[in-house]
Amino acid sequence: MTESSIALKAQGSRGVVPWKQVLLLGSVVALVLGIGLGADSPFLLSLAGYTCGFALFAVSVNVMLGGIGEVPLGHCMFFGIGAYAPAIAMNHLGLPYEAGILLGMGFSAVLAVLIGWLTLKLTGAYFSIVSWGLSGVAMVTALNLEITGGPLGLFGFTRLAIGPFDLSDPRTYFFATAAILLLVLIVLANVRSSRFGNALESIRQGRHLAQSLGINVFRERLKALVFSAPIAALAGALCIPYTQIVTPEVMSVLRTVDALLAVLIGGTGLLFGPVIGAVIFTILPQFLQFDPNVKVLVFSLIIIFIMVVAPGGLHQLFKLIERRLEKRSEGRA
Amino acid sequence: MSSSSGYAVEAVDVKKTYGGVSALKGVDIRIPQGSIYGLIGPNGAGKSTLFDILCGITKPTSGTVNVMGMDVAALPAYEVARRGVGRTFQRTAIFGHSTVYENLLYASYGRMRHSAVHRLLRLPVWREDMNTFADKARDVLAVCGLTELRDQLASALAYGIQRRLAVAIMLMNDPKIIFLDEPVAGMNEVETADFIQLLRAISGRRTIVIVEHDMAAIGALCDEVMVMVDGRQLVTDAPERALKHPDVVAAYLGASDDELV
Ligand SMILES: Nc1ncnc2c1ncn2[C@@H]1O[C@H](COP(=O)(O)OP(=O)(O)OP(=O)(O)O)[C@@H](O)[C@H]1O
Ligand SMILES: [Mg+2]
Fold first, then answer.
1. Please, which pLDDT band fits residue A106 given cuts at 50, 70 and 90?
2. What is the pTM assigned to this prediction?
3. Which ipTM did the prediction report?
4. CA separation for the pair A275, A262 (Å, rounded)
5. What's the gap in Å between B89 CA and the centre of ligand 2?
C-alpha cells in the first residue's frame, strides 16, 4: 500500500484513531528507547547516532531516487555543505553549532535552486553525471579554500550541542539524532501523501501524462531537489559529533553511492526503506570488521540477492510477512 | 475564454518539420464547439503530430493555433492542460504502479489547493480538497464503470479497462475539449461498443476530437471528419460522405489495403 492510499483510508475513517500508525510510531519509539537506555557501550551508542545521521542522508537521497526516479550522484555535495557549515561557523565565525546547522540547510536549499535550475531539465544518466561533476567541483573547492581548512579539514570543535542537549555525550547524541530522524520521517510521510507528493509520484511514473494533467513537471522536480537538499545538509551536520572532523572527503561521491546502496537494500518505495538499509549498511560492517573493499563486494552481492528475491527492496519482504499475518488473522475472525 | 467564433479549434496553415522530415505541410482545421470531430488517415499522415500541437505538447514550425481562445503555441503544455484541454495518448497512458483510485488522485492535482503544510497539520484546506476529490472521483468512477475496480492496480486491468481509466483520469479535470488518440485500437467488439457509449455519455457540451482507424467507430460517433494524408488535409465532410469520397478511397488504397474495411 502506498502512502497516499494510507492517507485516503485515514481520511475515510475520520475521527477514528489511525491504530496502525499509532502502533508503528509506538514500536519505533520503544525501539529507540530500548537501544538508547539498554546499550551501555559509548561506542555502540555513538555508532547508532551516526547511523541515524546516515539514514537521514539516505532518506534525502531517496526523495530523489524513490521520489522522482533520478539518481542524485552529486547529493554528497549537500551533505558536505551541511557538515562544513557548522564547522566553519564554530571555528571561524564564533557561531554556535545550531546556527551553523541552520546556515548549512539554508545555503544548501539556495544552492539546490540554482543547481536544479541548471540540471533538472536533464533526466536519467545525464542528470546523474552532471550532478556528480558538480559535487566534484565542490570537493575541489573544499580542498583548496582556506576557510575549509584545505585537505586537513576542520576539527577541534568547541561545543556540539543542540539547545540543552550535549551531543558529545553518546546517549544524548543517539536520542537527538533518532528524534530528528523520526521527525523528518513524519514530515516526509505527510509530504508524500500531499498534493506535492502525488505530483512527484505521477511524474516518476509518467512525465508526459503528468504534464497533460496540468503538472509543471520541471517545477515539481525542482521542488523535490530543494526539499531534499536541506535534509542532506542536516544529515551532514549530525554526523560531526561522531566523526569529530570535517574533511573534503565528506563530499566524496562514494558517500552518495553508500546511501544509494542503503536505499536499494531497504527499498525505494517505502518511507522506512532507507532507514532499514542504512542500519544494515553501517552496523553490519562494524561487527564483521570488513576491509572497505570487501565491504563494497559484500554489499554488491547483497543487492544482487535482494534484487532477485525482492526487487522492491527488503521492505517488500516485510510487507509479505505483514500480508501473511493479516490473512491469518482474517482467517481466524 | 472560448472563442466567439463558435469554433473550439481554429488552426491555420500549421506546418511541422522534424529535421528534414515534414510531418505537417500546412493544415487548416476548424472544429465547431460541442461537436465530435474525427481525424482519420493512413499511418504516418501526421494525426498524432497535429494532436500534440493542438495540446501544446509540440510547438508548430509555423502557423497559428487557437484552441478554446488560447494561443496554445505560446503556452507550456501543462498550462494548456490546466485551462481545460484534456488528452489521451496513442499508447495507453495510466499510472500503472498505482491503484485506479490513486490514478484519479494524481489526476486531480489541478483541482487541489493544499500544500504539504496543510496536509501535515490536517488543515481545512486539505480536508476540503480531499472531500471534493472523493465526490468527483465517485462520479467519474461511476460514469466510466470503474467503481468496482477502485482499488485494483492499474497495470493489472484488462486493456479495454485501462483505456477507460485513461478517460477517467482526463475527466477529473473537467476538460472543455478532449483529444483521444486511437482510443478503441486493440479493443474487441464488445469493448468498442462500450467505449463508444462512454464517449457519448461524456460528450455533453464538450468538444471531442478523435483520431481513429476504426471507421465503424468514427461513423457512429462523429459529426464531421477530416481525412489527412501525408501531412495535408484531403477532405472534410460528414463521415458517410468523406469515406466515400474518391480521393479518400484512393489514398487509403494507395497507403495500405487493410485499413479501410
Ligand atoms: N518526434 C519525431 N521526430 C521525427 N519524426 C517524427 C516525430 N514524430 C512524428 N514524426 C514523423 O512525422 C510523421 C507523422 O507522424 P504521426 O505520428 O503524426 O502520424 P500518425 O498519423 O499519428 O500515424 P499513426 O496512424 O501511425 O499513429 C511520420 O512520418 C513520423 O515518422
Ligand atoms: Mg498516431
1. very high
2. 0.87
3. 0.88
4. 8
5. 9
